[in-house]
Design a protein that fits this description.
The structure holds 2 protein chains of 2 kinds. In chain A, about 45% of the residues lie in helices and about 10% in strands. Chain A contains 34 helices and 21 strands. In chain A, the strands form 7 sheets. In chain A, strands 20-19-18-17-21 form a 5-stranded antiparallel sheet. A 4-stranded antiparallel sheet of chain A has the order 10-11-13-12. The N terminus of chain A is likely disordered. In chain B, strand 14 and strand 15 form a beta hairpin. The chains are: A alpha+beta, B alpha/beta. Chains A and B meet through helix 17, strand 10 and helix 30 of A and strand 2, helix 21 and strand 25 of B.
């Protein structure tokens, strides 16, 4: 944008800061800190001074990144600003958004009620402040200036009308038009001739911006021409017309298009296409830059009735319990039989299926549980040659926590995770399915969408469920530019992520029956420990079961862990859920006997833990199995003690402390014990002996737990969506450094650098900043330049644009517009004027 | 967390703790939609199935009630997914309706057009329907009323049948309540059936299903076709009907292998209906012989496959199914649902037992040990001969003798599978044997003698499994069975469950050879009985001898 340059602007800038850097310099430290916090990319690396900072935040990439993080209204304000010349006042922006109060709006525009107008008026200062805080906008309220990169990104052009649907200004659209033609246009529009092209453009612009004169001109237009304008008014502002550039005059205009072209109401752009100049479009729109202005976030209005918050918390707690148990079950299984990782990373489809079968759930859900465990650092590849997925040592520590704390670990990890389990199994770019736990499941958009969706849920009255469709309008309003790629079905990534977030939240017990539960609220606000909120909602573990004559045992709730393990040993699990149903079968009883229990052990165990009398068929079953077990007498003794010295064995046997081991002399040199080998070993050691374990082959055995673990592993770091948000210490240090650098830079600014005999030399950052300033102020610069052959030269240039490492400038030596590579510019100096 | 008696499991089973104070309320709340699967002593297991949910819909319950019942009584939060699934499944019932259209006759109408589009696209539906009347209605060939209901159920969109019934030929029938009364649950069952139009009444053996049939007939007051399992059962029906209703001997006909009477009330056996002559069902015309107003299916869980086919054509008549269990060993519960009708009433055995209408039973398994030579012979027997070998071991005879002796004052039935074994036992005990070849006259004579306590021990083969009425049998000894059939076990137990004059408990013994397949099969049957809530003990043969 090169409109409105020259002396006029300089005169005005005398009252306020001359450049963005100057304005930044005037800002207090905490305002700078806020800027850096909202745009952390500016800190990488820490800029040397404020000129550098302003140069960096004026770069296209950084500006776009900042724009992406604006809500819809703030963005609309920025867009409205971009349609107006620099130096606009707040009042003008408001008029652009709402249209002048007395002007009838275009019928295509969403009508505004007085309430809407006041909402705009209320929201506008905040939006302006946000833009200013993020350094996308500077200057006083009566002279607002968009940072150049922002203006370039948002200002409507013929090729890119943007969301306003407006075209270029008349001045821009007439660039390159011959002076004669401009006079023709003036004449056709019924205006007096002017001395030069600049005044001609000004006169035409004045005609279109004057409501009364413009309306009068349009009144003379034939009806089809008005209809044609109407088609272009809300954009796209361009239309295709054969030989649009033909200089038609009012006299020889035949068609409606020609009528408009003759008067400059449509202007030719590229050959064969015409554009509606911005001023006219605004006139036709009744002065409004946007068809619909959305000053406030649409509030989600859930269709479902609110549920009892207690029921919600209950349902969520139940699911939280299930989540913790599921992860535990999954990882316990994988601790014993760890599956291989794929060569490309991730988990094979067959292993996923197997895990899903073990969990009795779908593969999709299994992928979620796996990713959850992975995200929480409980599961990782073990790094061996044949790499396998296995629980980490972190899993063991996690197991030590109580259920509520365990859930808290999972939920915290989930909230920040960039992993998107729902992508597992979907085809990637090459049409191959993505593997669960694989490298292709990270989406940087995920955590922000997740948090935003949950935050919206949290704002609803407690117990109110909402669907993704109900939340999405608000999410879209908050970050209109952050939708992610759109899929073939027209849904963008954010739409999908929102739906997935709600599904996952339900599975994890973040929500219960669709509404946010209390523990999750604590998690989001960080006001209370979520584990403490959750703990009282969880069912208390029981120490008893109900035994039934059909050989089942029903645990009417979660069991204490040791009891659950003991019961799982001697009975098969038949049904899971709130309760657990165990079934005793001959095989399961045999399994318990094989594991070293005796019939008496089992009977006592059952009597102790049964709330009801042990049914006769069950004791009969146990005795019957034990009876046959006994006949063969193979493994009923759990351990043995072997020694070549019979007298030593006798000594052990006679020792009263060994009574608990229930030792039996099988042969003079062999003692059998009903105690497990580790108990036997431990007891013997406490008795003062030095026993050693031996394997089946009689080799010495070094015991260690058989469960598989990875080496120490840290949890995967969520893939950053840009640089991390800096903390206060870093910010303070950075600002200090910038201020210091700035003082140094401004101190040396006045030193004479222009020595005509030498190439000017300045630091690269300084060069860039100086050139950008020059573009802004329309100043002439003296530069040193090395061409492709390495030959040095000095040039006087009028920089026009600094972008993508190149400076476009009018070169006074060559007398033409040229492009200079920034890195070839040795330095710059201001010219003495 | 509330303190309800119900626990909802993730596999859609419901555990009901029956010692809980709210257990009875909860049972009433969940009974309409959940099928009682197991009823052992302390915790009953119900299962929520699509059929069960549709049964509930047919009975006028909606998803909201089901969800309410689950949420209200559940001790732990009910998984949301399950609630959604319940609502979904129930929502499927009734989206399609069979209606009588004033001009087009039988039509299939929908309240949800995409569903109609979906089912019409099925290849199986296409031949059953005719022209599209309007976007939501399509004509159904009247003869395919049953067929289309079957197919729609398989597609997961069960149709609600509002097409109504023909009244049939009127015939006066009244209950003759002289000295007896319809028990409350029987009256409820009839009420439930009549209200629903057609359907199945589930009552335990010995709970008076025949009377439910009779009361239904008295409601219908029209000509009735009754289908029963065999001739003996047919005679019993006739006997009961004449005794309990205003019907006379002449008004009730028997249509069986021996007699071919067609009267206002006709009782036919499944066997004669499914007899084929030269490849065609010879007695089909019976269904058209009269304008029947009601068709009663006794023991509906045994309904042979061909009868389903005939029934499919009988959809305009009221149908009443009577059974002790909806479990079919062939898994055709869905056909019963779509062709006979949804479940209209059921009451668990224990509840009726508690009301004193059936006798409590003491089940006992006696384990006999094979002798060494028998074990050797068993171990070397051909696999297909093994069961027969261990089931008929000579050791069992001594146990049976001891048991008969122990209960010498009681009327005792000895039930077995193998004729040789039964003959041998009959000889040893000096008791008459009833088997397949025994003539009907001889059977009735022996049953009469048994009823009159002229003989106290009767040895019967599996012919006596069904529908014979032996009021005073208090002891049943089972020596061998059809492998592990739960069905047979229920029927055999039913033999001793008729209420006893002196209120004595019934005894049910199974004699089983230890460490053989016999024991494995017995484990199956034992599980069934325990799940029905019967006390079950296992003792060694030595304790009896």
């Amino acid at each position: 944008m090169t409109t409105q340059q020259g002396p006029q602007r300089r005169a005005r800038s005398a009252t306020g800061p001359r450049t963005l850097a100057e304005e930044l310099r005037a800002r207090p430290d905490d305002a700078l800190a806020a800027l850096l916090r909202s745009r952390p990319d500016l800190l990488n690396p820490v800029p040397g001074d404020l000129t550098q900072l302003s140069a960096r935040l004026s770069s296209r990439a950084s500006a776009l990144r900042a724009l992406e993080r604006l809500d819809r209204f703030t963005l609309q304000v920025a867009e409205a600003l971009a349609t107006a010349p620099d130096g606009t006042s707040t009042a003008t922006v408001r008029t652009l958004l709402t249209g002048p109060a007395k002007v009838k709006p275009h019928p295509g525009a969403t009508p505004l009620t007085p309430a809407d107008r006041s909402a705009v008026a209320t929201a506008l200062p905040r939006a302006i402040a946000t833009l200013r805080d993020r350094a996308l906008l500077w200057g006083p309220d009566n002279g607002l200036r968009l940072v150049l990169a922002v203006r370039e990104a948002l200002a409507p052009t013929a090729a890119n009308p943007g969301r306003t649907g407006l075209g270029p200004t008349l001045a821009d659209a007439t660039i390159g038009m011959s002076p004669a033609r401009l006079q023709q246009l003036l004449a056709s529009a019924g205006q007096a001739a002017t001395p030069d092209p600049v005044t001609a453009v000004a006169a035409l612009t004045a005609l279109l911006t004057d409501r009364a004169r413009c309306a009068a001109l349009l009144d003379t237009a034939p009806e089809p021409a008005l209809r044609l304008l109407d088609r272009l008014v809300w954009g796209p502002p361009t239309g295709t017309v054969p030989d649009a550039a033909r200089p038609v005059t009012a006299e020889d205009a035949q068609s409606p298009v020609e009528w408009l072209l003759a008067r400059g109401l449509l202007l030719p752009t590229s050959p064969g296409s015409v554009v509606l100049p911005r001023e006219l479009a605004l006139h036709l729109r009744g002065g409004r830059s946007h068809r619909t202005v959305e000053p406030v976030q649409p509030e989600p209005a859930p269709a479902a009735a609110p549920r009892d918050p207690q029921a919600v918390d209950g349902a969520a707690a139940g699911q939280a319990h299930t989540a913790v148990k599921t992860v535990e079950e999954l990882l316990d299984g994988w601790g014993l039989t760890p599956p291989l990782t794929l060569r490309a990373g991730g988990l094979g489809v067959r292993d996923l299926k197997r895990a899903a079968q073990a969990l009795e759930t779908t593969e999709q859900q299994t992928a979620f549980w796996l990713e959850l465990a992975y995200t929480a650092g409980l599961l990782a590849p073990d790094g061996e040659v044949d790499e396998r997925w296995a629980p980490t040592p972190g899993y063991d520590s996690w197991l030590q926590l109580d259920t509520a704390e365990r859930w808290s670990v999972l939920a915290t990890a989930w909230l920040a995770a960039t992993r998107v389990p729902a992508l597992a199994g979907t085809p990637d770019g090459k049409g191959k399915p993505r593997a669960a736990l694989g490298p292709e499941l990270d989406r940087t958009l995920a955590p922000s969408v997740r948090r935003a969706a949950l935050a919206l849920l949290a704002e609803l009255p407690p117990g109110t469920p909402a669907t993704a469709e109900e939340l999405l309008p608000a999410l879209r309003w908050q970050r209109p530019l952050r939708g992610g790629p759109t899929g073939p079905d027209g849904r963008d990534l954010r739409d999908e992520l929102t739906a997935w977030t709600l599904d996952e939240a339900e599975l994890l017990g973040i929500t219960g029956r669709g509404a946010l539960a209390a523990p999750a609220r604590a998690l989001l606000t960080a006001e209370a420990d979520p584990a403490e909120v959750l703990a009282p909602l969880l069912p208390q573990p029981l120490d008893h079961v109900i035994l039934q004559p059909d050989l089942t045992a029903v645990a009417p709730g979660p069991l204490l862990t040791p009891l659950a393990h003991a019961l799982a040993l001697c009975a098969d699990i038949e049904s899971k859920g709130g309760a657990t149903v165990y079934r005793f079968t001959p095989a399961s009883v045999r399994r318990a006997l094989d594991a070293g229990r005796t019939a008496a052990d089992l009977r006592t165990f059952l009597e102790q833990h049964s709330r009801t009398p042990v049914p006769q068929p069950l004791t009969y079953l146990i005795d019957d199995i034990a009876r046959r077990h006994g006949i063969l007498r193979v493994g009923a003794a759990s351990s043995y003690l072997r020694c070549d010295d019979p007298s030593l064995l006798n000594e052990v046997l006679a020792d009263r402390r060994s009574a608990d081991l229930r030792l039996r002399l099988l042969a003079p040199t062999v003692l059998a014990s009903q105690a497990a080998p580790d108990v036997l070993l431990a007891t013997l050691r406490t008795m003062g002996y030095a026993p050693a374990a031996e394997s089946a082959e009689g080799d010495m055995l070094i015991t260690r737990p058989d469960s598989h673990r990875t080496p120490p592993r840290t949890a995967p770091v969520p893939v950053p969506d840009g640089p991390p948000t800096p903390d206060d210490t870093l910010l303070a240090a950075a600002i200090k450094a910038i201020r210091a650098g700035d003082r140094a830079a401004t101190a040396s600014r006045r030193e004479p650098t222009a020595d005509p005999r030498h190439l000017p030399r300045t630091a690269a950052a300084e060069t860039l900043a100086a050139l950008q300033t020059a573009v802004l102020l329309g100043e002439r610069m003296w530069i040193g330049y090395l061409n492709a052959e390495g030959i040095a030269s000095q040039r006087i240039i009028d920089p026009v644009k600094v972008e993508g490492g190149f400076v476009t400038a009018f070169d006074h030596h060559a007398d033409e517009l040229r492009t200079f590579a920034l890195h070839r510019i040795t330095g710059v100096a201001e010219l003495d004027e | 967390m509330n303190d309800g008696p119900l626990i909802v499991q993730s596999d859609k089973t419901l555990l009901l703790e029956i010692d809980h104070p709210k257990a009875a309320d909860c049972r009433r709340a969940i009974a309409p939609f959940a099928e009682l699967e197991r009823a052992p002593e302390h915790v009953h297991t119900y299962r929520v199935t699509p059929l069960g949910l549709w049964n509930a819909r047919a009975a006028g319950h909606d998803a909201e009630q089901v969800v309410d019942a689950l949420v209200k009584y559940s001790r732990y939060p009910v998984p949301h997914a399950l609630l959604v699934d319940v609502a979904d499944t129930m929502g499927r019932y009734g989206r399609l309706q069979l209606l009588k259209h004033p001009t087009h006759g039988l039509v299939l109408a929908t309240t949800d057009r995409p569903v109609l589009e979906e089912v019409l696209r099925s290849k199986k539906i296409a031949p059953l329907v005719g022209a599209r009347v309007d976007p939501d209605t399509v004509v159904v060939h009247p003869s395919e009323r049953g067929q289309i209901k079957q197919v729609l159920l398989k597609l997961g969109w069960p149709a609600e049948d509002f097409a109504g019934y023909v009244d049939g030929e009127a015939h006066p029938i009244d209950l003759d309540e002289d000295g007896w009364q319809l028990r409350p649950y029987q009256a409820q069952a009839v009420e439930g059936f009549w209200h629903g139009g057609s359907g199945v009444v589930v009552l335990p053996c010995g709970a008076g299903k025949t009377l439910v049939g009779a009361a239904a007939m008295a409601h219908a007051k029209s000509t009735t076709l009754i289908l029963v399992t065999n001739t003996v059962s047919a005679r019993q029906w006739k006997h009961e009907l004449v005794k309990r209703t205003s019907l006379t001997e002449d008004e009730v006909g028997e249509y069986s292998g021996t007699k071919k009477e067609i009267r206002p009330v006709t009782i036919a056996t499944y066997q004669v209906m499914t007899t084929k002559r030269k490849g065609v069902y010879a007695h089909l015309e019976l269904f058209d012989a009269r304008n029947w107003g009601l068709v009663v299916y006794d023991e509906v869980h045994l309904l042979p496959a061909p009868v389903f086919k005939f029934t499919a054509d009988l959809q305009a008549r009221r149908r009443l199914g009577l059974t002790a269990t909806l479990v079919r060993e062939d898994g055709r519960e869905g056909d019963v649902f779509s062709l006979i009708g949804p479940k209209r009433f059921d009451a668990p055995w224990k509840e009726i037992e508690a009301q004193g209408y059936i006798a409590p039973a003491d089940c006992c398994e006696v384990r006999v040990t094979l002798t060494d030579s028998e074990r050797l012979a068993y171990a070397t027997a051909e696999p297909e001969e093994r069961y027969r070998y261990c089931a008929t071991t000579a050791t069992k005879r001594r146990v049976v003798e001891a048991l008969v002796k122990k209960h010498e004052k009681d009327q005792t039935l000895i039930i077995g599978q193998y004729i040789d074994q039964l003959d041998e036992l009959g000889e040893a005990l000096d008791a008459p044997v009833i088997k397949g070849e025994t003539s009907n006259a001889q059977r009735e004579k022996l049953f009469d003698a048994f009823r009159n306590k002229e003989i106290s021990v009767l040895v019967v083969s599996k012919v006596a499994n069904f529908s014979i009425d032996l009021p005073e049998a208090t002891v049943a000894i089972q020596v061998s069975g059809t492998f592990g059939s739960r069905q047979e076990e229920a029927q055999r137990l039913g033999r001793v469950l008729r209420p006893k004059a002196d209120g004595h408990a019934a005894h049910f013994y199974s004699v089983v050879a230890r460490d053989t397949v016999d024991q494995d099969f017995a484990a199956h049957r034992q599980r069934f009985l325990a799940e029905q809530g019967y006390a079950y003990r296992i003792i060694d043969a030595d304790d009896v001898l």
